[in-house]
Each structure stands twice: as structure tokens, then as C-alpha cells.
Amino acid sequence: MDISNFVVDRRREKSKVRCIMIDETMITIKGEVYWLWIAYEPYIRRYLLMNISKERTLAACYNFIKELRRLYGSKYVIYTDGAHYYDQALDG
User: Where along the chain do its domains lie?
Assistant: First the structure.
């Protein structure tokens, strides 16, 4: 499957970003549990950032959001599923 239509070219698309939705999901790879973190822009229908971590902690969430802000700035509204660690990480 060609994912090039779904992954953003930051140089070209950064100015089109209006809001960001982030979420995480548990995945299993070779019997090991990991967390897949995803940032998605619904208006341009592009994945902005993906990350895999061994833990679903405040620190992992904070590092994901920190990298997202480094790449795209902090002027965007970020939508989450309301998990407590997102609120804490967004304030950090």
C-alpha cells in the first residue's frame, strides 16, 4: 500500500494545517506490547506524526506533543480523546 498520499510533506503542507487530532492505540509486535501515537490533520487528511513507545505514560505523551510542536508550532487547536495525560502533557 502506498502511504505517500497520507503522510504530509512538511515543507509544502505546514501552512495548510488548521487543527490536529492525536490519539494512541496499543499494538502487539512479536508478542511485545507497544503504543502507537498518531497526529492527524483532518482538513488536509494527512498524518503529521507517528511514534511508537513501550509505555503509555505522561512522559511518552509529553515527548510526542513536544515533537509535534517542534515540527508544526503551537498555534493549532489539538483535539484528544480526553485522557488525563493529554491535558497534563499539553500544559507542560
Answer: 10-81
H/E segment holding residue 31: none
pTM value is 0.82
Does residue 87 sit in helix, strand or coil?
helix
Q: What does the pLDDT look like over 32-58, one tens digit per residue?
A: 999 999 999 999 898 999 999 999 999
**42: its cell numbers:** 483532518
Please state which CATH class domain 10-81 belongs to. Answer: alpha beta
CA pair distance 89, 92, nearest whole angstrom: 5
Confidence tier at 83 by pLDDT (50, 70, 90): confident
Nearest to 68 by CA among 6, 1, 10: 10
